[in-house]
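From the pipeline queue, job 12 of 40. The input is one protein chain; the requested action is below.

Action: predict structure.
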Amino acid sequence: MASTVHVTGRMAHIPAAAAAVTAAAVPLAGWTVHSVIWHRRFAAARRDPLTESLGRSDFTLRADRLIRAYGNDVLVLLADVDHFKAVNDTHGHAAGDQLLVAVADRLTRWAGPRGVVGRLGGDEFGVAAYIGSGRRHARIDQLDKMLAAPVPLEDDVLLTPAVSVGAAAPDLVGTRDLSDLLRAADTAMYAGKHTGRTVLAGPEHRNAPTVNGRRAGRPGTHTSRQAA
């Protein structure tokens, strides 16, 4: 039995099986489009909507993969925007948002295609990047210059960012565990707080005392209320 369809005003006959395939293709195509849209929305929800950086869980997952793939040639960073509350109070929250977006963008460009950036807190970012051991110091100097470049705000205002950064490499810290590397980077970051220079962690930074899973003295622990 044949089915009849209209083609540019004429009557045409196609086999019933072909008609069934054609009819099924319409809802299938609709489902494909729906699936693509759903996956895009799901991926977007796993990113910070302001900076488009990865959320903590996805950052952790991808940073772990990088370390497994490249070992000692991975550099793990923790970056914290200094005086962020003062920026919001002085220039407004829109300016604070612009600053966070600029910092995230610079970290992402610096990390490159084989790096990942995650927003771990309000003004705190984690980075894991493939960087050969022989290039660490040059790339760290490059990052310091990138982060210190002025950020243009509205009304021709230029805001000079202050970002504290700690860096940890598996061979220098003595571990390939991401949690330990982040803790070492966190401790190194606070050792050089407000200096404008990234501090490269050593094994002594890995074993820093912690309170509730965070470096002792860090904002959010019960041992200190000092603002970053």
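Job complete. Residues 1-12, 220-228 have pLDDT under 50 and may be disordered.
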